[in-house]
């Protein structure tokens, strides 16, 4: 992290933008991880999380046989029209 900051400032800002907004840098990063690990050791029970809602699945309406045939005929007509224009 420190090496990249010295070598290429723009790349450092692009790669570590989330760290910068959180106020983390190469000097206080190790301390932050040590604090997080000590907090986990003090209370290792996982925090309660909300169950994810299953997303609604939307499927299209089934076409009848006649509608499918009409769609194919429309596509053929469009292709013929495009071919004639060329």
UniProtKB/TrEMBL annotation:
Keywords: Cytoplasm, Ribonucleoprotein, Ribosomal protein, RNA-binding, rRNA-binding. PANTHER family: LARGE RIBOSOMAL SUBUNIT PROTEIN UL18, RIBOSOMAL PROTEIN L5-RELATED. Residues 38-67 are annotated as: Disordered. Signal peptide: none annotated. Residues 32-80 form the Large ribosomal subunit protein uL18 C-terminal eukaryotes domain. Component of the ribosome, a large ribonucleoprotein complex responsible for the synthesis of proteins in the cell. The small ribosomal subunit (SSU) binds messenger RNAs (mRNAs) and translates the encoded message by selecting cognate aminoacyl-transfer RNA (tRNA) molecules. The large subunit (LSU) contains the ribosomal catalytic site termed the peptidyl transferase center (PTC), which catalyzes the formation of peptide bonds, thereby polymerizing the amino acids delivered by tRNAs into a polypeptide chain. GO terms for cellular component: cytosolic large ribosomal subunit. This is Large ribosomal subunit protein uL18. InterPro entries: Rbsml_uL18_euk_arch, Ribosomal_uL18_C_euk.
